[in-house]
Specification:
5 strands, globular, 5 helices, five-stranded parallel sheet, alpha/beta
């Protein structure tokens, strides 16, 4: 069973996102262990540029990742359709040796150094989503991928 850790900057601001994430974590628990880790957002960022904010947040994220196999989520990453994502997730189970970390940046995204050191960079869409919504979309897509692999009727 794969252990999935999702590390992100900032907590959910809207209850419906938290409820949705909880729902998919519960569904996913049949197939994988899932842990969400929320890192605090930076304080007093008004005078900081987006690049400085990304660098500081990415430093915190890198510390939380450690030496685990990690996949960074970025709009310019590799995109998959659902069946291809399921197949890739099956290979990630092998490549990661049982634990994979998904990294979601804050409002400004991820610093290029964190992206360069990622084992993989995935895109969930060419559209831009709030970083809170990305958590929900990622969890749903992981559940869909496992449903495809296990032949359940969720993916039609």
């Amino acid at each position: 069973m794969l252990n999935i850790r999702i590390i992100t900057v900032g907590k959910d601001k809207d209850r419906w996102i938290s409820d949705g994430c909880d729902h998919y974590v519960k569904l996913l628990s049949r197939f994988a262990g899932v842990e969400l880790k929320f890192l605090p957002t930076l304080k007093s960022t008004v005078s900081l540029s987006p690049e400085v904010i990304k660098a500081k947040e990415s430093g915190k994220l890198a510390g939380a990742i450690g030496h685990e196999y990690y996949i960074a989520l970025h709009d310019r990453g590799r995109a998959y359709d659902s069946p291809a994502l399921a197949k890739r997730l099956q290979q990630v189970e092998v490549d990661s040796r049982g634990t994979v970390v998904f990294v979601i940046g804050g409002a400004w995204g991820l610093d290029k150094r964190l992206l360069e050191h990622a084992n993989e960079v995935w895109s969930l869409s060419s559209l831009t989503f709030s970083h809170q919504l990305v958590r929900l979309i990622l969890l749903e897509q992981l559940y869909r991928a496992y449903s495809i692999l296990r032949g359940t009727d969720y993916h039609k």
